[in-house]
Amino acid sequence: GDSVTQMEGPVTLSEEAFLTINCTYTATGYPSLFWYVQYPGEGLQLLLKATKADDKGSNKGFEATYRKETTSFHLEKGSVQVSDSAVYFCALSDIYGGSQGNLIFGKGTKLSVKP
Amino acid sequence: DTEVTQTPKHLVMGMTNKKSLKCEQHMGHRAMYWYKQKAKKPPELMFVYSYEKLSINESVPSRFSPECPNSSLLNLHLHALQPEDSALYLCASSQGRGIANEQFFGPGTRLTVL
Q1: Cα separation values, B43 from A36, A82, B35, B110, Å
Q2: Which of A38, B29, B39, B47 has the fewest CB atoms within 10 Å of its CB?
Q3: A79 CA to chain B: closest CA distance, Å?
Q4: Least CB-CB distance to B107: which of A42, A100, A102?
């Protein structure tokens, strides 16, 4: 079945450092890919998405490119802020592979940014 | 209005209590979801409603009973829960069940079962 693997962390960075959170996927069909963020004590918010190969999703300085050849959707940000401290979930949605259009989540990566 | 609201924010209940969680959205979305999230874990799908009909039940125990009274509302009725059911319960909605449709999540209800 479909699955998502992401680096589990925790990841600790200083303010203004470069961020990469790796995410790779296994899917039967042609999935859509998402990054969700969960701030402490809150629900999940969609950060960005990409629906086909080579699409780049971007929002709030974060970017991720849908790479079909490497089955990856790595999250990057050039300069993190303390306010970016949160848990980041990579997810896919596929009509095949047992997921039936539902979200399949990675295990989440906790990011802590120090001033 | 691009918000999913959930009430209550926190709930403490005994194992013999009956309570309900409520979720509401006014985005015209036709799919609504219940998830359970334990600490330091991703959300686990419990139920999916599509056009007010239960579409998927991910083998959830019968002590959890969902209800979708109309396209804007989703309830989760709780009865005879166990302490291991303590978790954050998240509601989400999406325009449809298509794979490109992102899900919008509510803030969750933090449930503690004593």
Answers
A1: 11, 25, 6, 13
A2: B39
A3: 25
A4: A42
For chain A, the distance separating the N- and C-terminal CA atoms, rounded to the nearest angstrom, is 41
**Over the stretch B95-104, which tens digit does the pLDDT of each residue have?**
988 777 889 9
8-state DSSP, B30: S
Q: Which residue of A has its CA nearest to B10?
A: A41
* Residue spans of chain A under pLDDT 50: none
**A32 is written with which tokens?**
């859509």
Residues of chain B with confidence (pLDDT) below 70: 1-2
Residue A36 tokens read as 């969700």
Residue range B47-65, pLDDT digits in tens: 999 999 998 787 899 999 9
Q: Do A24 and A72 meet the contact criterion of CB atoms below 8 Å apart?
A: yes
Given the structure tokens 């019968």, which residue do they identify? B62
- Residue in B closest to A101 by C-alpha: B99
CA trace torsion A44, A104, B24, A109 (10° rounding): -10
What is the DSSP code string of B82-104? -GGG-EEEEEEEESSSSTT-PPE
Contacts of B104 (CB under 8 A, 6+ apart): A46, B2, B3, B4, B25, B27, B29, B92, B93, B94
- d(C-alpha B65, C-alpha B61), whole Å: 9
